[in-house]
Amino acid sequence: MSEIDSRRERLVALRESGVDPFPARVGDRVRIAEVQERFGGVSGEQLDADPSVIGLAGRVMAVRSIGKLVFLSLLEDGHRLQLSVQKKNVEPELFAFVKALDVGDFVHVEGPLWRTRTEELTLDIRAAQLLAKSLRPMPEKWHGLQDVQTRFRRRHLDLLVNEDARRIAFLRSRAVSAMRAFLDGRGFLEVETPALQPLYGGAAARPFTTHHNTYDQTLYLRISDELYLKRLVAGGLDRVYEISHNFRNEGVSRKHNPEFTMMECYQAYADHRDMMQLTEEMLADVAKRVVGSTQMEFRGTPIDLARWHRVTLRDAVLEATGLDFTELSDLESLRREVVAQGLGTGEATSWARLVDDLFSDHAERRLLEPTFVTEYPVELSPLAKRSPENPALVERFEPYIGGMEIGNAFSELNDPDDQRARLEAERAAGAAGDEEAHPLDEDYLLTLEYGLPPTGGLGIGIDRFVMVLADAPNLREVILFPHLRPESGGS
């Protein structure tokens, strides 16, 4: 008989004996964390001299029987406390009930506190109630949940047996709260924009498409909330931000998940230099609040979020490949040189895309310490303002840590005629086969014609930034429910 069958037999027996295995009410209780705080320094002699009955609730994580004495481990909200039941102190039915509990069962118990010979704080059970019967065995802590696919598909089990998974979950929550507190303190207003959009935009990505039945309308899951947030700035909300879920119909990798969390903020009367300063101050502040320091280690590399390097896109590619793409200003000449030097296949559909491929394939992974990459070609940045010093470039930067991009920022393009020309070029690229080309958004262009003040914008990928704070090797470690390949024979 399997363990599951045995547990189901015990479920039937409980019901036949009049026990409700899933009652609707929980008795009075104290949180385990509070018990540990209140009684952590109280001696066994003091507990014996002044006994008081305490109620606890939680999940049974271990059962160890020593003849007429049974020890259990109770888990509640990440905190554990040892329980005991002594045959001489309770009715036979209660002793048998506790002894028959399965690992994974939820229980409510009452009894006095005492200390064992090893000085472990313990509650001696004098009353017990089953709160929820566990019908499947828990994984063993060290052997039962090693497969990464199982960990991410059964995250509830991962959180129970993997302390690091729980640590990262709490760290992520604190990081988001800290980022929100920083922006609130700088006078930014948190807003909400649509996740379902009649036209996607704000990034170079393929969207997910859906359909609204009532209006017979095609809709898209947002790839970015940029254009909506800039509409709000045009409407007089000078500092706005949103922490939102974005969706991009792309592959899954160590650094990519189709659904991800982004913080985007926009500030009127600012430019990319202001946003660069904001980025430095914000990420350092979040790190200090969450991990206690701006200095940490990510995948073996010491980093300091209070110290940022700066490099141009040209210099980053030149240092990594020896190739100066600014000297090869058309697609064919750049493609020939890329192929000749063995730097790639040169299959990009445009000169700008090939430059981006060179950077992604060769330079990006070298940017281990916090680095701002600047001076992007205008063709790669259809929503960014041109540089007054060199109109072929835009006022844009991307922050990199640990060899991966964690954000994007620029002086926002607010010239409606220039914006229209660039979106027309993007539309032509899309018609030529570029699936990530930006669509032409007439409503957004209308907004610009009413007027958008000089504005600085910044987007930070929450998931990747938390990877850095947590020293996590994979995006899936920091997303509680990452997208996974369908299981064979199921979804």
Structural topology:
Elements: H1 3-16, H2 32-39, H3 44-49, E1 54-66, E2 69-76, E3 79-86, H4 92-99, E4 106-111, E5 113-115, E6 121-124, E7 127-132, H5 148-153, H6 155-161, H7 163-185, E8 189-190, E9 196-197, E10 209-212, E11 217-221, H8 226-234, E12 239-247, E13 259-268, H9 272-291, E14 295-298, E15 301-304, E16 309-312, H10 313-321, H11 331-340, H12 351-363, E17 371-377, E18 393-401, E19 404-405, E20 407-411, H13 416-431, H14 442-450, E21 455-461, H15 462-470
Parallel strand pairs: 3-6, 8-12, 16-17
Antiparallel strand pairs: 1-2, 1-4, 2-3, 4-7, 5-6, 9-11, 10-11, 12-13, 13-21, 14-15, 17-18, 18-19, 18-20, 20-21
Number of strands: 21
Please give the CATH architecture of the largest domain: 2-Layer Sandwich
Which percent range fits the helix content?
25-40%
What is the first-to-last residue Cα distance? 29 Å
| Main beta-sheet annotation | 9 strands, mixed
Provide the number of structural domains: 2
CATH class of the largest domain, please? Answer: Alpha Beta
Under CATH, the homologous superfamily of the largest domain reads Bira Bifunctional Protein, Domain 2
Give the mean pLDDT. 94
Category by helix and strand content: alpha+beta
Percentage of β-strand residues: 15-25%
Shape: elongated
- Estimated radius of gyration: 29 Å
Which residues form runs of ≥5 with pLDDT under 50?
none
The fold-level CATH name of the largest domain is BirA Bifunctional Protein, domain 2
Task: Please give the count of helices.
Answer: 15
